[in-house]
Amino acid sequence: MTPQFSADASYGPKFDPNLLVYQWSSLDPFSPNYKKKTPWVARENSPETFYETAVVSNQSISVDGGGGRGTFKMGYTRNDENGVLPNSKITKNLFNFGAGYEIAKDLVASASANYSKIDGMGRYGTGYSGLNPNQGFRQWWQTNVDIAELKEAYFRNGKNVSWNWSDTKATNPIYADNPYFNRYKNYVNDTRDHYFGNISLSYKVNSWFDVVGRISYDGTYDLQQERIAVGSTAVPSYARTNRTYGETNYDLLLNFNKNITEDISFKGLLGANLRRDKLTSIRAQTNGGLVVPEFYALSNSVSPIEAPQELYTRRAVDGHFASATFGYKDYLFLDATIRRDQSTTLPVGNNVFWYPSVAGSFAFSNLLKEQTWLSYGKVRLNYAEVGADAPPLSVYDTYTKPTAFGSIPLFSVNNVKNNQNLKPERTKSVEAGLDAAFFKERLGFELTLYKTRTVDQITPVTVSSSSGYSQLFVNAGEVENKGIEASLFGVPIRTKDFSWRMNVNFTVNRNKVLSLYEGAGGNIELASLSGGVTLNAALGQPYGVIRGTNYIYINGQPVVGANGYYKATSSSAEIIGDPNPDFLAGIGNTFHYKNVALNFLVDIRKGGSLFSLDQWYGLGTGMYPETAGLNDLGNPKRNTLANGGGIILPGVKEDGTPNDKRIDVSTSGGSAYGYPNNPPRASTVYDASYVKLREVSLTYSLPEKWIRKIHPFKGIDVSLLGRNLWIIHKNVPYADPEDGLSSGNLLGYQSGSYPAVRTIGFNVKFKL
């Protein structure tokens, strides 16, 4: 007997140690199992053993000093991190220097210079990609495949010996590469050089007025190299991206600080900011394969390379701003700001935008000092607007230049339609709050109510290809967020040697799409994803809702068709999930006993939906326990119907009577689980709630009498740290609900999910 190597699924005869079969390793001439039968059993080493224990080390040193007129500080930090995947490593080096010097009376110069270098090796593949090992482990796999045997097969000769042969001659893998071959041959490496710093002059004109001039720069240089080795299932290739970005800011600040009267204080600011940024990038890759294996250079391309993708953007924003803060007797405060920006990325006529803010607060506890039970109390109210410009190159249409046709140069219309009528994006927010503490700060809370409204959001939206474009830049619409943020603290016990402090945080946010641009048809598709679902901005709905096919219901029960499978809606535009949580909460406790401190934090998320592509495909390929086991008759589900197998799906028939149709689930093609029979996409939408032990730390501070004997240190703290230690509760099966694919504020989708990583660390802190 020979398994179907080309089938990347886990259906077939049940495991039997007495059944000997020719497995994938029997086709490998270098394997000890070559041309041998081996027992048909589940793997001894599951995909969990593919992951390695990551080790992170961090060392830093800083030195500071100075004299009568100047000070300086310099430091160095190195961080080494070996990842949980084989052949993954990140190395970071950071150098920093800062200094200040009094050139003359009231004239001070200061400067800082920083440089960091990050080298990455074997960055993790994500999503639905063969370079993400979890695409195989969670979606397309055979449960007889032993990870240790795959590791041995690769390291014997460095070849792509796969479990997923295209035929019994082991010609080549058909879908899946050996995961170790992917990690050691098809890896990505990258380097980032980051330079940032500033230089400034400050002149104190008099006791209440000073002038500051500052120039700052922040720049990066990135090199990313990607490779697909000869022997992979994909076409061998090499690609490199060079990217340079720089931002320069010129600031002039006039600061005022003077009491108007004995009771009224005043602080003011007048300023100007000029921001200039520039980005250049070029990406090129080989074409048609590699001539020489493992020689990664553009010149090693089988066919002439296509025209590189080149990008050059510039942005200039000129800003002028002012602020004023008034205080009355240290209990009434009023802040007001105004800013005017002019940006080159918006069309002339719409490229100037103003945004103000005003805030008031009343520290009523300063009027109730005789009330000893009240330690602190303040009410606050503010309104603010924030403006934003458009991405560069989104106003005027441009041409793209593809590879020439022979000797004939070609130009084509860009597939993104730009917009000469774009307006600035604005976010308007109002916030009210109450802060209070009682009984010498043994008990207290902070309560905030807020409402924000973002209008004229600038985004490229998907349009019909019949227009000649795939996307169009528009002011897409208006989104509202409103909610409550609350925190409560208490100190139940506080003695000379022992204290216990508890903190509770609670957040509720509700968002809603209030309007969309004309022509949107009530919906903007934000992302179209594998599995047949989309993320959307739907009019009148929360932002980011999941659309796909849903169950058809009768009296709240899912309808089963005559074939015994669930019926799905004809439309894939049904809203089947909202990724936004009902609330977020955190509970932290800190205990101090003499020189020992224990801290732990529990995080809670309630609600929010998540579509799992891992379950959609993995259930269909028989990867998960639900697809096996016993049925309601006490027989193995995967038996044929004639042998008492199969299942009856809960629900009702189309006439409303209970479903009693038994269906065969002995093969992947006939499975009622997952994708094979095209069930409603809602079948793999899950509640993303969780309760996690997020963090625990235990710190011991060496006694002061010991420290006095250890010069020049003023203190030494020794800590044991743990993070993401325990998922106490969750509803998403076999995965961490927090591990989802996301882009910006798009949530609610999981594919090739990585396992949760528990971090345990040891730290020694020296105080000078």
Automatic annotation (TrEMBL):
Gene3D superfamilies, alphabetized: TonB-dependent receptor, beta-barrel domain
One Pfam family it belongs to: TonB_dep_Rec_b-barrel
TonB-dependent receptor-like beta-barrel domain: residues covered: 154-512
Superkingdom classification of source: Bacteria
InterPro entries on file: Beta-barrel_TonB, Beta-barrel_TonB_sf
Keywords assigned: Cell outer membrane, Membrane, Receptor
Protein name per Swiss-Prot or TrEMBL: TonB-dependent receptor domain-containing protein
